[in-house]
Design goal:
CATH topology: Rossmann fold
Mean pLDDT: 89
Oligomer: single chain
Structural class: alpha/beta
Distance between the termini: 42 Å
Low-confidence stretches: 1-7, 237-241
CATH architecture: 3-Layer(aba) Sandwich
Largest sheet: 7 strands, mixed
Radius of gyration: 18 Å
Order of helices and strands: HHEHEHEHEHEHEHHE
Number of strands: 7
Strand order of the largest sheet: 3-2-1-4-5-7-6
Strand content: 15-25%
Number of helices: 9
Shape: globular
């Protein structure tokens, strides 16, 4: 049971009525892939039906195209996707169901709710990579408290991520970009990996495009790609780096 006091979900859970085929996937496949945050194993790698060497998390996977592409490219990694929007979940399930038997997407698990309910419960230092791609910028000032990449959530991520893990963030909203950089670079457990403009202007080759990004670029909007290292703030020289 998700802690309702801490779970404050802003935004839609449902859009248009699902087509029968996708509704069938939600009814049949989603229960098999869903995670219960209160019943997580001490080792997240045991959430999967076969051995995986690490676990990566995507928060707010939208239609799941990035998550599915990463899972296909890294069959030795276990992927957890958080998304409360049932239409996006159904789209990901259709990609999983359509995967060829020779390369099944059997390394994906889903948490169909607010990511905070999962992140606060995963074992410490259990995640090796986290993606937060094009989160809702909540542009109005009175809604800034709803932004996911805020100090409280960064504290949760720092606890959940292993030292040396990577946090990947993308946005096309320049106001949110300034917010992200202020909070992430100001957090003692995260270090921005950029060394030059290309490091945030160009999407890395191993970073599949999302539908949202494709639409933003088609509108002529700039997208920014940020990579942060989960560092040990107590390590010698880290404060000066």
């Amino acid at each position: 049971m998700v802690n309702e006091r801490k779970q404050i979900l802003h935004g839609r859970r449902r859009g248009r009525r699902l087509r029968p085929g996708r509704q069938a996937l939600v009814d049949r496949l989603l229960p098999r892939l869903s995670l219960d945050p209160e019943a997580l194993p001490l080792d997240l790698r045991h959430c999967f039906d076969r051995p995986v060497r690490a676990v990566w998390l995507e928060i707010g996977f939208g239609g799941g195209e990035h998550l599915a592409a990463q899972a296909a490219a890294h069959p030795d990694i276990g992927f957890i996707g958080c998304e409360p929007y049932i239409n996006g979940i159904a789209r990901l399930l259709s990609q999983i169901a359509a995967a060829p038997a020779s390369r099944p997407l059997d390394n994906i698990r889903i948490f169909a709710d607010d990511a905070r309910g999962l992140v606060e419960r995963v074992p410490a230092a259990s995640l090796q990579r986290v993606f937060v791609l094009f989160p809702d910028p909540w542009p109005k000032k009175r809604h800034h408290r709803r932004r996911f990449l805020a100090p409280a959530q960064l504290d949760l991520l720092a606890r959940a991520m292993a030292a040396g893990a990577e946090l990947r963030v993308a946005t096309d909203h320049m106001g949110y970009l300034r917010w992200i950089l202020r909070h992430c670079t100001g957090h003692p457990s995260f270090q921005w990996l950029a060394r030059g403009p290309a490091d945030w202007r160009d999407r890395p080759a191993d970073w599949p495009q999302t539908r949202y990004e494709e639409k933003a670029l088609a509108r002529g909007e700039a997208c920014v790609y940020l990579r942060f290292l989960r560092c040990d703030p107590t390590a010698p020289g880290m404060a000066e780096s």
